[in-house]
Amino acid sequence: MEKVVASPRQIQPPTYGNLITILSIDGGGIRGIIPATILTYLESQLQELDGEDARLADFFDVIAGTSTGGLITAMLTAPNENNRPLFAAKDIKNFYLEHSPKIFPQERGPFGSIINMLKLSTGPKYNGKYLHGIIREKLGETLLHQTLTNVVIPTFDIKHLQPTIFSTYEVQKSPYLNARLSDICISTSAAPTYLPAYNFKNQDSEGNVKEFNLIDGGVAANNPALVAISQVTKQIFHENPDFFPIKPMDYDRFLVISIGTGSAKVEKKYNAKMAAKWSVLGWLLHGSSTPLVDVFTQASADMIDFHISIVFQALHSEDNYLLIQEDTLTGTDASVDVSTKENLEKLVKIGESVLKKPISKVNLEINLSKPIENGGTNEDALKK
């Protein structure tokens, strides 16, 4: 149980520049390699402008992440001994390549699927011990309020059946939220059926103790972009002087970059005829995927994208919202836990290829991303 003490934040308020800049990173297990690869490119472009020491945390007022995106968020914003970001973006991809096989050890051989079924009948697929250990090792005792820019990391409280949002904006009003980043990351990554739910207690400076019973934030907001926007809007409503003279609906003052971890929409691997016959186990295991988790995480991410897209369009600020997503994953590409060397290397290549694809917007009629005519590539958009 950590006793927390808040200290003054040293982040430049958004009025220091022309825009409130928000970076959002989806959940998706090992598919976090895809946004990590994209962010490596974005940070390299910023370094061309401001030198090799430039980091993403220097350019975004808010970085939000859910599940694997929450871990990336913490790695980008946690301070090292020199009070600079603990990880450069390029280091995060290597982190995934090195540690994913130990976080998600694979059952090989002809009995692998049977072993996985037996695991699901007795508990989560993975015990999480290696993941918990490596997160604690990398993030140490760093607290939420110590991040180098504002962060927003959603989780879900399984005891109270409601989201718990760990936000640097909320720490002053709710100091019990000022938990260790390691505890927050373990919580937001606790995907049902894959990793165990996580319990911890936190104590504020007045001795008040708060107990958390948390699972993956993806059940509430697998795409945390709207949560981040809401956190900023709440500060504007409460007349935080950092945001003066911005108004709540000044969406032309927002710049939102939302990076997904890919989906298997094009593959169409499920259908109603198939699902109608599934037992409880069928909803939990279908080949290398978990249909129930796929359904609620994708539904959450898409609903948020639909909402943001429509609002930004309605307020004539559509150019201020960029979603980078890949809907054409197939087979093990779309898995959250297939950590073979071949699959990990393929995810890196997918991340690189997404940069070369045209900018797309979700088309509600066909439920897929549709390229924007003469819009350029995602790489072009990030440069712009």
UniProtKB/TrEMBL annotation:
GO terms (BP aspect): defense response; lipid catabolic process
Pfam families: Patatin (PF01734)
UniProt cross-references to InterPro entries, sorted A to Z: Acyl_Trfase/lysoPLipase, PNPLA_dom
Residues annotated as catalytic: 67, 216
Keyword terms of this UniProt record: Hydrolase, Lipid degradation, Lipid metabolism, Plant defense
Motif placement: DGA/G: 216-218
EC number of the protein: 3.1.1.-
Free-text note regarding domains: The nitrogen atoms of the two glycine residues in the GGXR motif define the oxyanion hole, and stabilize the oxyanion that forms during the nucleophilic attack by the catalytic serine during substrate cleavage.
Biological role stated in the UniProt entry: Lipolytic acyl hydrolase (LAH).
Name of protein: Patatin
Organism field: Camellia sinensis var. sinensis (China tea)
